[in-house]
Specification:
The chain is mainly beta. The chain is 14% helix and 49% strand. The chain contains 1 helix and 9 strands; from the N terminus they run αβββββββββ. It starts with a helix and ends with a strand.
């Protein structure tokens, strides 16, 4: 029979796992994938880096997050996590004023 400590630990972990979702992000500039670009999601202790095809994957508790793409000073954007997987396809676009933004495609 599992110990009370083990049951408590499982009881505390399972609700967190049930309230998280996979986030898939792809980054492009024009028709080119952005490989090796660092990204930061608020509340996460580590930076993520895009793969050779410009994609990254993470798992986040349900909620709203700010995604910062550390590329050409692109403005941050909001992403959302829920129980269902979420796909975000972004293109880094230069505005007429010279600043860069993430445009969801």
């Amino acid at each position: 029979m599992p110990s009370p400590t083990f049951r408590l630990a499982i009881g505390l972990l399972l609700p967190g796992l049930a309230c998280a979702g996979d986030i898939y992000v792809t980054l492009r500039e024009g028709s080119s994938p952005l490989a090796g670009v660092s990204c930061q999601i608020d509340g996460q202790p580590v930076r993520l880096q895009t793969a050779s095809n410009g994609s990254l994957r993470t798992n986040l508790p349900n909620g709203q997050y700010t995604l910062r793409v550390l590329y050409k000073g692109a403005a941050p954007t909001q992403i959302y996590s829920s129980a269902e997987p979420a796909q975000y396809d972004f293109e880094v676009v230069r505005k007429p004023d010279g600043h860069y933004v993430l445009v969801r495609r």
